[in-house]
Write a structure and sequence with these properties.
- By secondary structure, the protein is of the alpha+beta class.
- It has one domain: OB fold (Dihydrolipoamide Acetyltransferase, E2P) (Beta Barrel).
- 23% of the residues lie in helices and 38% in strands.
- The chain is built from four helices and ten strands; from the N terminus they run αβββββαβββαββα.
- Strands 8-1-2-10-9 form a five-stranded mixed β-sheet.
- Strand 1 and strand 2 form a beta hairpin.
- The longest helix is centred in the N-terminal third of the chain and has 26 residues.
């Protein structure tokens, strides 16, 4: 009789442990797009990415902050393009020969972000992201989710798109 109870309890424990493992694995990862800014690797959660485009020309837009490179016409839609290196105060090469723009969107805000090079898609386990990083300046911390153990900096695009710093509401 005691062996039957142990067997039943063991089977129940096995069933419960399997379902718990499945929940943990599926809920603790995000798909990201990896790209290069200067010499460092960055990532954006793919839920905010509409597309990545190759461009050869951006129309300059006067009376905008220096981190706004200009605008592009994407299938009839006018989209502002940001030099995120200038916005986050990252040193690096000039944006004179821009080739790739990542189009990100949250709610009704859509923005192009210049990337030096697109590295590809990957999956990051959330427990790999170190959120308290001392090497990041205070200005940048608001827009950075964290850094992975592979030194991949994960940007918080939602926070960036909702920031008052990128909204230009001036009249000439």
């Amino acid at each position: 009789m005691k062996n039957d109870k142990k067997t039943i309890l063991k089977q129940r424990a096995d069933k419960l442990s399997i379902s718990l493992e499945k929940k943990v694995v599926s809920g603790e990862q995000i798909k990201v797009l990896e790209f290069l800014l200067s010499t460092e690797k960055y990532a954006i959660d793919s839920t905010y990415i509409n597309e990545v485009i190759s461009i050869s020309e951006i129309t300059p837009l006067p009376c905008t902050p220096d981190f706004i490179v200009g605008i592009i016409n994407l299938r009839g839609k006018i989209i502002s393009v940001m030099d995120i290196k200038k916005f986050l105060s990252i040193s690096g090469a000039d944006t004179a020969n821009i080739k790739k723009v990542i189009i990100v969107k949250h709610s009704d805000i859509e923005l192009g972000i210049i990337a030096d090079e697109i590295l590809g898609n990957s999956i990051i386990q959330l427990n790999e992201i170190q959120t308290k990083v001392t090497s990041i300046t205070d200005v940048n911390k608001n827009f950075i989710t964290g850094v992975t153990n592979k030194k991949l900096i994960v940007l918080d695009i939602k926070e960036l798109l909702l920031s008052e710093k990128i909204i230009i509401n001036e009249e000439i």
